[in-house]
Each structure stands twice: as structure tokens, then as C-alpha cells.
What does this fold into?
Amino acid sequence: MPPRATPPLPRALLLDDPRFDLHAPPGHHPERPERLVAARAAVQGAAVAFEHVPAREATNEELGRVHDAAFLEQLERARGARTHLDADTYLARDSVSVARLAAGGLVDVVERVLTGPVRQGLSIARPPGHHARPGKAMGFCVFNSVAVAAAHARARGVGRVAIVDFDVHHGNGTQEMFYDDPSVLYVSTHQSPLYPGTGHSTERGGGEGLGATLNVPLTAGGGDDVYRGAFERVVLPALEEFAPELVLVSAGFDAALRDPLSEMRLDSAAFGWLTRALRRVADVSAEGRTVVTLEGGYDLVALETGLSAAILGLTGQAEEIARDVDHPDVARAATAARASFRRVT
Ligand SMILES: [Zn+2]
It folds into this structure.
């Protein structure tokens, strides 16, 4: 028998840059350059043909779609300074540039996913972004890269963008930026109560955007069953109804059992089926266009193994969800979400 041909590796775009290491804290801090060592190990261990996307600084026009001009000016004045923007958000000497590189690089990943032929992208850029508000850096985040990327997609004519945020913390900044916008569906699963204190199920969008924000707060201690139920019964039906043309994933790995900043209990494989399920949604309505961008995740082992699994999910190599579960948290979340969600297109 002739040897069977090896199937080609799945392709995906990758944003990484050595300058992301320059955002380094003045002392001990969970959001540290060592996270990139873990993330790069996951990338290097993946059976994926990655195509590198160069980082470049986001322009004022790109950042200004979601951030206030006065905030951009404040950060330009802070270029080169070692300082803090709030109690837990530091700036190193190069951090303003690095944060612009993270956002601009993600815009380019989205641009390339939109034009093809490669329809999946991954960013392991630091600093993270989902807590950054229109006029304020917050919670380790300087610029809100995923929001900047979503706004770029909208500006070039994409009708419906979904941002799914499974970081253990609520992405208050992202929610705020698109709260009144019916064309960007923001969905978050997060531990509650926990920093930053937002993300109640009654926060569901405002004005024209009513129904285009979906929060699924989860009680501390939940593991795979809770997340499976939340995804099957709340997150995925809402996404399928919205039928996004682009799926962006705020991928935090801090809901992992090992993570020091939360009390959730996900195992690493969960990040695979979570991401696989989101890729499935994209396959149905978005020609597979899915971009995963790193947010939190502060245990280095959990980050590496969780991101490895998420890469499998992004590239269609992870197992799909295949069972129903029932859990009080999920039942509550499903009831609240069904009451609040409506078709927004
Ligand atoms: Zn987080």
C-alpha cells in the first residue's frame, strides 16, 4: 500500500511581536511578560501552519472609534514615562507604543481574516484590553484592542460583529463601548461577584442596542458543567440568532482551576470546546471568520494548556460539545437571558 498522504496543517494568522515583552511591571504583578513565554509555547506546540502578521501601532483614527480623544492625548503625553494609570494598571517606558502595537496588529489580523483566504486568527499580544474604557485605562488594560478591531470591521462594512468574552472577569470596557450599538453583540461569561463588579444579567444594552449585550454571571466554583450549560443554553443560541459575520473572542484563561485571580474551576480542555463552539457559529454565518485574542490568564501552566486547547478549537481540531447539563446557575442564567435577549438585526 502506498503511504497515505499527510493532510495539510490547518492555517491561521498569528499576531506576536518581541516588543510585547517590553510592557513589564515595576515589581511583582500578575500581568507580566512571562505570560508570553507560556503563550508562545502553546503556539509552538500547535499543529497549525501559522502565518505571521506584523504588529504596527494603531492610528488615532482606529483608536478614536472607541476611545476619547482626550484619553489618547493623555497617553501620548505619558509616552516614555514609568507610571500607573490606576491602582493596578502600570505603564513601562515603552507601554504606550506596545499597547498601540497590540491594537493595530489586531486590526490587521481582522483585516486579513475579512479578505481571506485564511479565515482564522490568533493574537497573543499584551497588554490585554477588555477593561479599558472609552476614557480610562483600567484593570491591566490600556487600549481596548478587541473593541478597536470590532470597530474597524464595522467601519469597513461588516454588518454584524459578535464579541464573545470568556475571560473570568466581565469586559466592562467592551460592553460600554458598544452598549447602544445593535450591530455589535457583546456576550460575556464571568464569575460574579468579582472585579470589576459589572456584568449583571440585567445589563442588556441600551437604546438601539437593547438586547445586543448578553451577560451570563456565574457563581464562584463553577466548572465545565456550568460552562457547558451556559454555552449550550444561553451563549450559543444567542449567537446563532444574531448570525454574526465575524466572531471575535476575548480569550482569558483565568477561569481555569489553577488561576490565582478567580475561583472558577475549568480544566484546560474546556477552552478547546468553548472555542470550537464559537468557530462552529462562525462557520455557519461568518464563513469561519474567527479571531481569538488573549485577555487574562495568570497561572502560566493553565495559560499554556488552555491556549493550546483554544488553538485546537479555533482551527477546528477540538472536540465539539456533545451533551446537555443542568445546573442552578445555568437555569438562572438561561431564564434571565431568554427574558432579555431579542433579535437585534
Ligand atoms: Zn480576567
About this structure: The two ends are 54 Å apart (CA to CA). DSSP finds ten helices and ten strands in the chain.
